[in-house]
Amino acid sequence: MAATEQVYIDVHQAARRYGMSHWWFYHQSSAGEIPSHHLGKYLRFKPEELDRYFEALDSSGGDHG
Questions:
Q1: Could you report the per-residue pLDDT of 23-53, keeping only the tens digit for each?
Q2: Rounded mean pLDDT, 6-15
Q3: Comparing C-alpha atoms, which of 9, 4, 19, 15 is closest to residue 48?
Q4: Strands 37-39 and 42-44, sheet pairing
Q5: What are the pLDDT digits (tens) for 11-30?
């Protein structure tokens, strides 16, 4: 994979990766609470952005469940 190529995952992949409901990702994305991208009609996430989001949330004592 080229260094400039972006990797995106869908809501189901994000849910499995982070052990949460895919609905949580839909709701948080539509509320603008988590970093997300619309590629055409598809909602996608960059794993590195979600990692940073959850790391920041954990370090601030927030609850993401």
A1: 999 999 999 999 999 999 999 999 999 999 9
A2: 96
A3: 9
A4: antiparallel
A5: 999 999 999 999 999 999 99
Q: How many residues does the chain have?
A: 65
Domains of the chain, by residue range, sit at 11-59
Segments in the chain forming alpha helices (H): 11-18, 22-30, 47-59
> Could you tell me the maximum CA-CA distance found in the chain, to the nearest angstrom?
36
DSSP secondary structure letter of residue 20: S
CA angle 59, 14, 39 (to 5 degrees): 115
Please, which residues bridge with residue 26 across strands?
A: none
